[in-house]
Amino acid sequence: MADFLEFYPLRTHNTFGFDARARLAVHIRNESDLVSALSDHRIDNLPIVVLGGGSNVVLTGDLDACVLLMEIPGYDVAEDDASWLVTAGAGETWHGLVNRTIDEGMPGLENLALIPGTAGAAPIQNIGAYGVELRERFARLRAYDRQSGDFVTIDLDTCAFGYRDSLFKREGRDRYIITAVTLRLPKAWQPVLNYGELTRELEGVSTPDAAQVRDAIVAIRSRKLPDPAKIGNAGSFFKNPVVDASLRNALLADHPALVSYPQPDGSYKLAAGWLIDQCGFKGVDDGPVGVYGKQALVLVHHGGGTGAALLALANRIADAVQAHFGVRIEPEPVIL
Ligand SMILES: Cc1cc2nc3c(=O)[nH]c(=O)nc-3n(C[C@H](O)[C@H](O)[C@H](O)COP(=O)(O)OP(=O)(O)OC[C@H]3O[C@@H](n4cnc5c(N)ncnc54)[C@H](O)[C@@H]3O)c2cc1C
């Protein structure tokens, strides 16, 4: 029998720190916990919400749902001639996994250091930072398929990873519950240093090893982003909008300082933080919610506010960007 907790407080389960309760919650510490929770008649009429570290969700109110608190541990290494294959339980912390692989001499995840949350959530939005995305280090994952009632293995191609996107944000949403993730870390390692800020941070280090790259990333991120333990936030709140070359060129003609990055398919990614900054929102507070003073892409919660108030602010920002630049910016976190 699953050990359901009633009206469970979620404030410490979301990095915004919003107060919300779950009608039911259950700790999932292994695959049997998952099967027994999902087959329990007490959740028959309730939606299921899967929660890892809660670092990419906005809780807009109490959840009339059963929340699965994903805490499955596990760490295993296999290898072939070319790569290490590292499997982590869904509940392992992502940054802990990055550190452990580097400490054990398996480089490859250093650019993704200090991203909060769990290993099991990393594929959901294909986490990325400083020139590396999860898909470049991903082999496969294991998940419970709620449609078939079986555990399945899902490979790289099937995950259909895109920029902050995957199968699990589209047709696989509400279908798969990830229990383990396997990463492929090539033994022939090359540091990825094509990010201006990172190169500057490593100035004077001629051939940095993975631990040095990791430390540089941790230093940059600690300066730039608010620590969720001190100020509630979910990292970047908006995705960088991708526009075609003609729109980007027209915007550039009107706004010569526009920050944009060419994409392999000829389109351009616009820096959402820059667009928001130009609309005058950086550092603006609206009661207990606001925009971080050092980075306009990050929305913050100072305490005592609600997810609904934060969403209202996010909509005002998106409307202002649309009115000013004719481009719609979309939230990155999952709204619950
Ligand atoms: C300060 C800060 C910095 C950040 N920086 C970055 C960054 O650089 N790059 C980046 O990509 N992201 C970043 N993020 C966002 C976030 O850390 C990642 O998206 C992370 O992968 C979310 O993990 P989580 O365990 O907290 O997921 P949650 O927030 O708990 O869940 C996110 C989504 O995944 C689903 N989910 C979670 N676990 C599972 C599972 N086991 N099976 C199926 N579905 C699941 C949830 O239902 C939800 O839809 C940042 C967040 C913060 C607070």
TrEMBL record:
Residues 18-188 form the FAD-binding PCMH-type domain. This is UDP-N-acetylenolpyruvoylglucosamine reductase. SUPFAM superfamilies: FAD-binding/transporter-associated domain-like, Uridine diphospho-N-Acetylenolpyruvylglucosamine reductase, MurB, C-terminal domain. Its EC number is 1.3.1.98. GO terms for biological process: cell division; cell wall organization; peptidoglycan biosynthetic process; regulation of cell shape. Signal peptide: none annotated. Cell wall formation. InterPro entries: FAD-bd_PCMH, FAD-bd_PCMH-like_sf, FAD-bd_PCMH_sub1, FAD-bd_PCMH_sub2, MurB, MurB_C, MurB_C_sf, Oxid_FAD_bind_N. The keyword Transmembrane helix does not apply. GO terms for cellular component: cytosol. Pfam families: FAD_binding_4, MurB_C. Keywords: Cell cycle, Cell division, Cell shape, Cell wall biogenesis/degradation, Cytoplasm, FAD, Flavoprotein, NADP, Oxidoreductase, Peptidoglycan synthesis. NCBIfam families: murB, PRK00046.1, PRK13903.1. Belongs to the MurB family.
